[in-house]
Amino acid sequence: MAVTKKASTYTKVLRKAQKETAIRLDKALQATAVEGITRMINLTPVDTGAAKYHWFVRARPNENFNKENVDGSGKLPIARAKRDVKLFRTIMILYLVNAAPYFKYLEDGSSKQAPNGIVGITRASLHLVWQAAIKVAFSRNARTAPSGQVDLVGP
Prior knowledge:
- There is one protein chain.
- This protein is mainly alpha-helical.
- The chain has helices at 2-43, 50-53, 75-84, 103-107, 119-137; strands at 55-58, 95-98, 143-144, 150-151.
- The protein has a two-stranded antiparallel ribbon with strand order 1-2.
- Strand 3 and strand 4 form a beta hairpin.
- The radius of gyration is 20 Å and the shape is elongated.
């Protein structure tokens, strides 16, 4: 009987660890996505602000472009990305999309403001962002709150 009780306790501990690990991985993914899209928004050149406005976090790689929607500061698309990225989990595909029809030209260096592109530069550094997010998510100071949210306090 004592062995059964120990096995039951061990099973509960493993289930809790499995759940907490999934939550922490999700938070690391979300933090990486937010940092990635924030970097790309900040690197996006500004003429009218339309290209900066049309960054989105999506489950599908499509979005509509409206040249009337502009934001030269990038604050609105960053806030929108921070909100939308919370819907994603590690088992999902997350797309960081720019709907500006001319964005390919910006990525290819057509703007003097971003002669080396935007996405390629960001993508080259995201593995470091991911490593840092994982380190924070699994640090001793990261706690799982009763709500199931992870508080990423930092190492």
